[in-house]
Amino acid sequence: MKIFVAGATGVVGRRLIPALVQAGHEVVGTTRRADRTASIEEQKATPVVLDVLDAAATRAAVAEAAPDVIVHQLTDLAGRDFDANSRLRIEGTRNLVDAAKAAGVERMVAQSIAWVYVPGSTPAVETDPLDASLPPYAGVAALESAVGELPRGVILRYGALYGPGTWYARDGFFAEQVRRGEQKQDPGWTSFVHVDDAATASVAALEWPAGPVNIVDDEPALAQDWLPVYSAALDAPAPPQGGRHAAVLGRPVSNARARDLGWKPSIASWRDGFEQLG
């Protein structure tokens, strides 16, 4: 297949491109920065400099590429600008979907997130409602709605990404916060997924039916369980205790549907993944 990867130099994209090429696909990869095109070429893909917030340019790029599938791995979080990231999810996804329709592309795989479910204690499945009170909700809802307009729009609800190049890497933003003692063991759920497993899910999703799929590991965890393990892996001080009697935030997330579709995480638990930080 010919695959158009929007966000080819991002933390998932740069793992996804070689996996797709190795699988025998022809790949076109986008980046907003001309100085990153060489890295795409080195992975044996065709680079395109594109800002998907430019609707006309996006339509032209997709038309020229004439792909069988568009893979949407775009984020805008380098500067931790959540408003910019929400805009990208809303406007950028709209432009990609409109470009797909104009070019007759029926399949799209798009990156969403798994931590916007309505809070609860039982593992969330894809049919459970999302929490409209959370700040990311507007961008996530717009992205998922737009992708859902395509006959074969697959939405990957990633857990918290960890591994090299992520905020949880040894040199990442979250790691620095932990070292400074700025993260507390507040009651709350996190479902993780290693970034390599996120990339393999994107490859597998090329053949999946339309709809959302949770991409998380096998062990959702409360902060009181995973944060001390993470801090120890960084050789950082034990994180301070949070509010013992505060309400538990978030919700554990189930990967049962992804497993039914044939995917499973190669790193089944963050416990094993965090050991690799050392």
Topology overview:
Elements: E1 2-6, H1 13-22, E2 26-31, H2 37-42, E3 46-49, H3 55-65, E4 69-72, H4 82-103, E5 107-113, H5 137-147, E6 152-158, E7 160-162, H6 173-179, E8 189-190, E9 192-194, H7 195-204, E10 211-215, E11 221-222, H8 223-233, H9 256-260, H10 270-275
Parallel strand pairs: 1-2, 1-4, 2-3, 4-5, 5-6, 6-10, 7-9
Antiparallel strand pairs: 8-11
Quick summary of this structure?
The chain has helices at 13-22, 37-42, 55-65, 82-103, 137-147, 173-179, 195-204, 223-233, 256-260, 270-275; strands at residues 2-6, 26-31, 46-49, 69-72, 107-113, 152-158, 160-162, 189-190, 192-194, 211-215, 221-222. The protein is of the alpha/beta class and 278 residues long.
Description:
This protein has 278 residues and is an alpha/beta fold. It has a single domain, classed as Rossmann fold (3-Layer(aba) Sandwich). It is 36% helix and 17% strand. It is built from 10 helices and 11 strands. It has a 7-stranded parallel beta sheet with strand order 3-2-1-4-5-6-10, with helices on both faces. It has a two-stranded parallel ribbon with strand order 7-9. Strands 8-11 form a two-stranded antiparallel sheet.
**What portion of residues is helical?**
25-40%
* DSSP E strands, number: 11
Main beta sheet strand tally, sense and closure: 7 strands, parallel
CA-based shape:
globular
Q: Average the pLDDT over all residues and give the rounded result.
A: 95
| Strand/helix succession | EHEHEHEHEHEEHEEHEEHHH
| Count of helical stretches | 10
What is the straight-line distance between the termini? 38 Å
Strand order of the largest sheet: 3-2-1-4-5-6-10
Report the C-alpha radius of gyration, rounded. Answer: 18 Å
Q: Under the CATH scheme, which architecture would be assigned?
A: 3-Layer(aba) Sandwich
Strand residue percentage: 15-25%
In CATH, what is the homologous superfamily? NAD(P)-binding Rossmann-like Domain
Q: Can you tell me the CATH class? A: Alpha Beta
Determine the CATH topology. Rossmann fold
Uncertain parts: none
Q: Return the domain count.
A: 1
User: Helix- and strand-based class?
Assistant: alpha/beta
